[in-house]
Amino acid sequence: MNAYAQSVDTAFQISGKLKDVKTGMMYLTVYGESSATKDSAQIVNGNFSFKGFVQKPSTAFLTLKGRKQDNLRFFVEPGKMNIKGKGDKLKDLVISGSALNTDDKKLSEFLKPVNDEEEKFYDAYSEAAKNKDQKVMDSLDALEEVMTMRKRAVVKQFVLANSESVRSAMAISENYGYYAEADEVEPLYNALSTSVKNSVPGQNVKKMLDVYKTIAIGQYAPDITQLDTTGKPLSLSSLKGKYVLVDFWASWCGPCRKENPNIVKAYKEFNNKGFEIFGVSYDNEKGAAKWKKAIVDDGLIWKQVSDLQGWKNSTSDQYYIKAIPSNLLLDKEGRIIAKNLFGKKLTDKLSELLN
Question: Which of 107, 121, 152, 192 is the most exposed place for a label (fewest CB within 10 A)?
Answer without folding.
Answer: 121
